[in-house]
Amino acid sequence: MSLTDGSAIAPETDLPGKTIPDELPAIARRLKQLGQDLSSGMADQLELLVRFDSLGRWKSSGSRHCVAWMNLEMGISLALGWDYLRVGRKLQTLPITQALFRGGKLTWSIVRLLSRVADENSEALLCHTTLNASVSDLERLCHEYRWQHDADQNGIDGESAGACNRSKLDHSAGRLLVTATHS
């Protein structure tokens, strides 16, 4: 019963360095630090999950696939588990993104977006752009970037694609891209 009623959990004062600050600037600093720590840990977790999957270590548990193992052993939903593996695998091809994520400079939300559009040719510019953008701005930019990439893949010539890109890239996304290229 002690686990369900909370009596087995140490009081907040018994956890060294874990007190909750009272002052607004200290709260903001603590939140940012926790976010960086979570991002860094998440980068490690994704790399380990991809390695665990590639080694097939989940098979000994009787699970049908790694995501089923994650669901049972880690409490991760199936959809999120597949997303973790997709992003983790993509990070193996994006060294800048992986380093920034591991350093706590990029969040899961940002890395997830970048993994959908970045490649070896665009990664550096996109990562540079993310350092000065909100997640919402980056969502718009990635959507437009992906649309442009799809147009390029479908054989629209450079002039038409450029015209399409100029007409589709909204003002805030364009401003982000310009800011990143001139920084």
In short:
Residues 1-20 are annotated as: Disordered. The chain has 183 residues and is mostly helical.
Describe the protein's topology.
Layout lengths: L1 H4 L18 H32 L10 H9 L3 H14 L3 H8 L5 H10 L5 H8 L4 H19 L4 H11 L2 H12 L1
Helix pairs in contact: 2-4, 3-4, 4-6, 6-8, 7-10, 8-9, 8-10
Distance between the termini: 57 Å
Strand content: under 5%
Oligomerization status of the protein chains: single chain
* Number of discrete domains: 1
Give a quick account of the main beta sheet: strands, pairing sense, barrel closure. Answer: none
Unreliable stretches covering 5 or more consecutive residues: 158-169
Summed up, the helix count is 10
Task: Give the structural class.
Answer: mainly alpha
Mean pLDDT: 83
How would the global form be characterised?
Answer: flat
The helical percent reads 55-70%
Whole-angstrom Rg: 21 Å
Write down how many β-strands occur, each being a DSSP E stretch of 2 or more residues. Answer: 0
Protein name: DUF222 domain-containing protein
Region (Disordered): 1-20
Organism: Granulosicoccus antarcticus IMCC3135
Describe the overall structure.
There is one protein chain. With 183 residues, this protein is mainly α. The protein has one domain (24-154). Helix content is 69%, strand content 0%. Helix 4 packs across helix 6, helix 6 runs parallel beside helix 8 and helix 8 crosses helix 10 (171-182). It is flat and about 65 Å long. Residues 1-20 are annotated as: Disordered. This is DUF222 domain-containing protein.
Which features does this protein show?
183 residues, mainly alpha, 0% strand, DUF222 domain-containing protein
